[in-house]
Write a structure and sequence with these properties.
Blueprint (H helix, E strand, L loop, with lengths): L23 E4 L2 E4 L3 E2 L15 H13 L4 E3 L8 H10 L7 E6 L1 E3 L5 E3 L3 H15 L6 E5 L9 H15 L6 E4 L3 H8 L6 E5 L8 H10 L2 E5 L6 H8 L2 H10 L3 H12 L12 H8 L8 H10 L7
Parallel strand pairs: 3-4, 4-5, 5-8, 8-9, 9-10, 10-11
Antiparallel strand pairs: 1-2, 6-7
Helix pairs in contact: 1-2, 3-4, 8-9
The chain binds NADP nicotinamide-adenine-dinucleotide phosphate (NAP).
């Protein structure tokens, strides 16, 4: 067969495409669309201090929710306080059905260093600070974000999970989430409670949490890959500049970012995306991933260039 000339990559629409309503998955007590928005990038550089362009940050948040995004990811320690304040200013009073998910167990010092804040009473304080800065009395879920995932789960981890369970019983949060965990942490937490969501690093170039994803898929737990476009910058370049990604993108009339996100949507039905961006143009592009469908050839090509880890 003669080779076809790749179709030109479409320019991102200036107005975000609506997220198809049918494409959703349970998150805690509700269901959310499979493409949400991660707000971390809205703070200043290194997630510290005020945004470079405050007005655009507010517009991005309003455009996301206006386009149908009903899952926002944040943390009090983004900024710190900066991202939650932007969300409140842009969106409060929050529309019914908007799931705001936060995370606890870290804080920033005055120089921006990320420090643990993960004693049970500090987790409680973290949840309360999120509620106050966001101006709400309940969050859809809060993730216990482990600082060190290499420490095996034990009594300390149990006490941390118990604190989130207590917050759920008191109605401060609707779901207990876990972040930066191993499969052993998930199984240990499940001995104590239902888990609403798991948020781990996962993208084409880093699939080291595949075992955690599989466990979540089998149990119907939402899996929320953070840094879905890759992190740090070098890893993102490896994905976005990969000839395999570029080739699939050209053939499917998509962009490299859309291919990276569509690969995740295609991988398992319980994957919920929260790509982050400071611009409405990238927001529109990321939301329009809902129209991109990988075919068998695309799956095979991406698997060849980004092979999953070999199972132990
Ligand atoms: N649980 C955790 O420990 C944890 C850790 C990290 C992040 N998170 C959460 O996960 C969310 C997503 O992760 P992330 O924001 O770090 O990484 P990401 O979504 O993988 O990538 C964000 C980066 O990609 C760029 N980008 C976004 N859309 C693009 C597009 N269409 N084309 C080209 N570049 C694009 C953004 O730049 P522009 O601003 O220029 O678009 C930004 O630099 C965060 O916002 C946060 O809510 C959680």
């Amino acid at each position: 067969m003669p080779e076809q000339t790749p179709a030109p990559v479409p320019a991102p629409a200036s107005v975000p495409a609506p997220v198809p309503a049918a494409d959703s998955y349970p998150l805690g007590r509700g269901r959310v669309h499979r493409i949400g928005y991660g707000a971390m990038q809205l703070a200043g550089d290194n997630v510290f201090g005020p945004p470079r362009d405050r007005d655009e940050a507010l517009r991005v948040l309003r455009a996301a929710v206006g386009a149908g995004v009903d899952h926002l990811d944040t943390a009090q320690y983004y900024g710190p306080g900066v991202v939650n304040e932007l969300i409140r200013e842009a969106l409060h009073p929050y529309p019914a059905g908007l799931a705001i998910v936060s995370k606890v167990a870290a804080r920033r010092d005055e120089h921006g260093a990320v420090l643990p804040f993960d004693e049970p009473h500090q987790l409680r304080q973290g949840i309360e600070e999120n509620l106050t800065s966001l101006g709400t009395d309940r969050l859809a879920a809060v993730n216990l974000r482990l600082v060190d995932r290499t420490a095996p789960p034990g009594p300390r981890f149990d006490a941390q999970v118990a604190e989130l369970v207590r917050a759920r019983e008191e109605g401060l949060i609707e779901g207990v989430g876990l972040s930066n965990i191993t499969r052993a942490h998930l199984l240990r937490a499940l001995e104590q409670t239902d888990v609403a969501c798991v948020q781990n690093l996962f993208n084409l170039a880093d699939q080291s949490s595949l075992d955690v994803l599989r466990e979540c898929t089998g149990r119907g737990i939402a899996f929320v890959p953070f840094c879905p476009l890759g992190w740090p910058r070098g890893v993102q370049n490896r994905i976005m500049s990969s000839p395999a990604v570029a080739g699939v993108a050209a053939r499917l009339q998509a962009t490299p970012a859309q291919v990276a996100l569509a690969w995740l949507l295609d991988l398992a039905p319980n994957i919920l995306l929260i790509p982050g961006t400071r611009t409405r143009a990238h927001l529109a592009e990321n939301l329009a991933t809902s129209t991109v469908r990988l075919d068998a050839a695309a799956r095979a090509e991406l698997a060849r260039h980004f092979p999953p880890p070999t199972e132990a």
